[in-house]
Design goal:
The protein has helices at 2-22, 40-44, 71-76, 156-172; strands spanning 25-27, 49-50, 54-58, 67-69, 90-94, 99-104, 117-123, 127-131, 151-155. It is α/β, with parallel strands linked by helices and 173 residues long. The strands form three sheets. It has a four-stranded mixed sheet with strand order 2-7-6-4. Helix 1 (2-22) packs antiparallel against helix 4. The longest helix is centred in the N-terminal third of the chain and has 21 residues, at 2-22. The chain is elongated and about 65 Å long. It starts with a helix and ends with a helix. It is found in: Membrane. This is Phytocyanin domain-containing protein. Keywords: Copper, Disulfide bond, Electron transport, Glycoprotein, Membrane, Metal-binding, Signal, Transmembrane, Transmembrane helix, Transport.
Length: 173
């Protein structure tokens, strides 16, 4: 009896911990960080960005910022007035929707001259969301949310592990 309970416990722990390996964290520019004179197109090439992944922009506070913009603003290196810059020096953006995403530095001519601009394509994930509220999340330019606390995110693998644990518990009763 104790071994069955241990099996159920381990299945539940594995289901909870598996989400850690599903989402990736990408430090933009790797060791170089977010700075002028870096080729962010080359950096992004070959990387696979998925819903749930995080982008981390590291830079000295006050030297740069990060703006989430649309494709036209990206091409023209312009910062729309309604876009609030991220300025912490360690900005983390969770990719919450698929599609094209564009980021620029809005300080001085860093985008135009320093080529501080990043364009990526975010792919769907095999995850699904269980929401306690079916209302859509507030829209943020670029389609990302700094934090998503409006639902429980569960991968298909996690769901299957929890389902297996429930079946085992039913047979134990």
């Amino acid at each position: 009896m104790a071994s069955k309970q241990m099996l159920v416990f381990l299945l539940i722990v594995m289901a909870c911990l598996s989400s850690i390996s599903l989402a990736k964290e990408f430090v933009v520019g790797d060791q170089a960080g977010w700075r002028t004179g870096f080729d962010y197109t080359a950096w992004a090439e070959g990387k696979e960005f998925r819903v749930g992944d995080k982008l981390v922009f590291n830079y000295p506070v006050g030297s740069h910022n990060v703006l989430r913009v649309d494709g036209d603003s990206f091409k023209n290196c312009t910062a729309p007035a309604d876009v609030k810059p991220l300025e912490t020096g360690n900005d983390i953006i969770t990719l919450s929707s698929p599609g094209r995403k564009w980021y620029i530095c809005g300080v001085g001519k860093h985008c135009q001259v320093g080529k501080m601009q990043l364009a990526i394509t975010v792919q769907e994930n095999l995850d699904f969301q269980l929401h306690d509220n079916m209302a859509p999340s507030p829209s943020v330019p670029g389609g990302e949310t700094p934090n998503s606390a409006n639902g429980i995110k569960m991968s298909v693998a996690q769901f299957l592990m929890v389902a297996m644990a429930a079946v085992v518990m039913l047979f134990m009763a």
